[in-house]
Amino acid sequence: MDNQLNTPLINVQNVNLRFGSVNVLTGINLVVRDGEIVTLIGPNGSGKTTLIRIVLGLLAPDCGRVVRREGLVVGYLPQRFSIDPVLPLTVSRLMTLTHSCSRAKISDALTTTGVSKLADANVSELSGGQLQRVLLARALLREPNLLVLDEPTQGVDFIGEAELYGLISRLRDELKCGVLMISHDLHMVMSSTDHVICLNHHICCSGKPEAVRLNPEFRALFGPSAVQNIAPYTHDHDHTHDVSGAVIPLKNDGEGHVHNRAAGHGKHNTNVVPTEIID
Amino acid sequence: MDDFLIRALIAGLGVAAVAGPLGCFIVWRRMAYFGDSMAHSALLGIALGLLTGIDVTLGIIGTGIVLAIILVLLQRQRHLSTDTLLGILSHAALSLGLITISLMERLRVDLLGYLFGDILAVTTVDIYWIYGGGVVTLACMAVLWRSLIAMTVHEELAEAEGVHILPARLIFMLLIAFIIAVSIKVVGVLLISSLLIIPAATSRRFARTPETMAAIASFVGMLAVFFGLAASIKWDTPSGPSIVIAATTLFTFSFVFGLGKHLIRFRSPN
Predict the structure, then answer these.
(1) Structural domains in chain B?
(2) DSSP H or E run through A28
(3) What is the mean pLDDT of residues A256-263?
(4) B75-113 confidence digits (pLDDT tens)
(5) Is A66 within 8 Å of chain B by CB?
(6) Which class is A1-73+144-274 in CATH?
(7) Domain extents in chain A
(8) Given this model, what pLDDT does residue A228 score?
(9) Which residue is closest to A89 within chain B, CA to CA?
(10) Is some CB atom of chain B closer than 8 A to the CB atom of A84?
(11) Which residue has the higher pLDDT, B152 or B186?
């Protein structure tokens, strides 16, 4: 049993992937263990979702390998989930999309994520926050030992975001499962994550949140304000904010680590606008 | 009632019943243009079937499958979107079919019948095709139902949870090719996709689950066939277009009904 627990849930070893002539992922190593929250951060188009797809087995890497622990059950919450209103679908039906499940279990799962009243609601009429909670409940139904969450707070307002991250931490404590998630919210990442991986086609830096925050490569990628951790708002690279919130133009791109234009120091917003489209 | 009228009614009702669930998926998965392209390629299938002397129905199913495979292969490149590819394939197949038919000088082909349907010419053999194949189609749909719904909701999520996407997608395309092949006599190449889409769109207002929507779509399609044929006989109008107009009328009623319901809900907040 001990031996089992020491084996990582998922172990990504030296994974590389190219799309045409673009190196999407180079030399990626990633480990998620029981009860650990690992968060991927990085600019838009830095390969985060692609890496998640490799972890899930939806995409095969060109080289390197992904070792999954025997008996691994993944609960997956995908990015950009929307239901066309032309498809009539209730929440309970969404919960049993690929596997049957008793009404009582569905109700339990929805209660756990705080949306017990929505079992008979129409999926296309849910708000962003409700939908994410329903999807999280859906992932729990499979009794996963690994939760994979691709931007769990998209379409969720600021207060809802904090609650949702709290819920994810609580689920980790109760279920003792591992969590691998993508997040754009640096503030939250720093306060509720065990291990941060900063990705920009390769792993720029990784480690405990405090360590990553002080790393020059993190600073280069997200700007100095992210390091000070004062404003969990947007951080385009052309300006920063002072303490009172006034805009200060950025003169230069910061030091350290150099990216070519394709790898991009474009926009990397730490998500705040509820309707923002990411990636 | 004459024999040929009874045969027409039996054939039409059978096609509409099978078209219900298939049409719902066409609507849910936004594949209306795909249905159209498959239907257009059917004309090439007819031409090839007549040319080689094999069965016309098999010719249509064959070209439908080839079109679907070409499309799946072409979708792997990323420069042209699916609807552009379909625009090319669909009209190329239609034109190739028309040219092939025009070259077959010794055969007198009822082109108008193939384009707009000739339900009064339905034979007993056609009815066997419709009902035999229809039962197989509905059985396949029943087996694949859960996978298809899951794929429609979110393809990656379904795949991550163990649904085999590619076989389900290919079988679905095969079933579409089949329903088009057997519907040609009822509504014709140019009007087939309306028999798939209009009943499905009509049933949305009345359904709370995907299954009821599929069942209601079958029912609406059968009503449209009944009223369309009746009108065709009474006023001596072409049968295929009459069925389509009957379906459109039902859709309009459902639309107005839904609008009325929406307004009532809007006025009384409780």
Answers:
(1) 3-189 (1.10.3470.10)
(2) strand A22-32
(3) 41
(4) 777 788 888 999 999 999 999 988 988 888 776 778 888
(5) no
(6) alpha beta
(7) 1-73+144-274, 86-142
(8) 58
(9) B209
(10) yes
(11) B152
